[in-house]
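Students often ask why inverse folding is considered easier than folding. One informal answer: many sequences map to the same fold, so there is more than one right answer. In these notes we will look at a single instance of the problem. The structure comes first.
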């Protein structure tokens, strides 16, 4: 059943999307934008922008349509396949693509594209994750390993658990560093003050991120991060924790940041032991064009 909400604004409230994300628990600001695009949110019976500033007397009407059922249907999508054999696939995921279907993203995910690409994907106990052994965020780009059968899944998951595989990321972060390298060892769990965020918290799970400073610019740095563990939003949370949030990060970064398609975070290098041959395989993918362009701009500004 669709849900209807109405609000009459009695005092200055700021942006429409921020107000609704605070007032309606199930809405994120991204979801608000989607509802606006579908003309399901109106102010004074008019469609306005998410940035519209609410004033006293405004009447806000919100229609939330029923959620689409999750889809495991094959969908013809362009996939950047870096490597494939009878056991594994390595894919370079673009920014903006969700890895597997979920309540907010029922289809057009990497999994839907993989199902069109091949009928051979390992089964998943979670149902909507066939072939998936690890994930990266929607707006994080880069390399993922996919299991085509259960033997491959078991091997790759074991390597993740035993920390014998290799996962290196590139990131542009705010601020400059006094040290060349560092290790962040801080537990990560759900943020008790914001259900949409993860945070460093005493009750969180063990999380370790290694980082190396590659270049420094005016107000920003290019770093390499190596994951020792794989918690949700780990690099994003850890870099914010030490005062160097990732540039462009809408969830953990400052409002004044570099413009892009979300956080400037790229899973550049992926290495693992092949499940069948036990040969070490290692792959690298260049950063997206928008990422490289921003590096070039920062370099020019540093001259």
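Output (designed amino acids):
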């Amino acid at each position: 059943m669709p849900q209807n909400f109405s609000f009459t604004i009695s005092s200055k409230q700021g942006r429409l999307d921020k107000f609704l994300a605070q007032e309606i628990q199930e809405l994120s600001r991204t979801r608000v934008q989607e509802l606006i695009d579908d003309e399901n949110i109106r102010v004074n019976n008019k469609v306005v922008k998410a940035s519209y500033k609410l004033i006293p007397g405004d009447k806000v009407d919100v229609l939330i349509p029923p959620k689409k059922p999750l889809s495991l249907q094959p969908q013809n999508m362009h996939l950047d396949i870096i490597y494939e054999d009878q056991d594994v696939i390595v894919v370079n995921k673009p920014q903006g693509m969700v890895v597997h279907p979920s309540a907010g993203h029922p289809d057009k995910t990497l999994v839907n594209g993989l199902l069109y690409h091949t009928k051979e994907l390992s089964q998943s106990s979670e149902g909507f994750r066939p072939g998936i052994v690890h994930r990266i965020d929607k707006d994080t780009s880069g390399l993922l390993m996919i299991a085509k059968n259960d033997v491959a899944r078991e091997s790759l998951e074991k390597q993740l658990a035993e920390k014998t595989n290799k996962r290196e990321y590139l990131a542009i972060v705010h601020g400059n560093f006094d040290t060349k390298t560092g290790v962040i060892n801080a537990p990560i769990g759900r943020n008790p003050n914001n259900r949409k965020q993860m945070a460093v918290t005493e009750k969180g799970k063990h999380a370790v991120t290694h980082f190396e400073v590659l270049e420094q610019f005016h107000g920003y740095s290019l770093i390499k991060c190596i994951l020792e563990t794989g918690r949700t939003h780990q690099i994003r949370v850890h870099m914010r924790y030490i005062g160097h949030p990732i540039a462009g990060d809408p969830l953990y970064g400052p409002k004044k940041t570099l413009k892009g398609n979300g956080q400037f975070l790229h899973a550049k290098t992926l290495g693992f032991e092949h499940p069948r041959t036990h040969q070490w395989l290692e792959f690298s993918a260049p950063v997206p064009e928008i990422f490289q362009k921003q590096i070039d701009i920062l370099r020019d500004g540093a001259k």
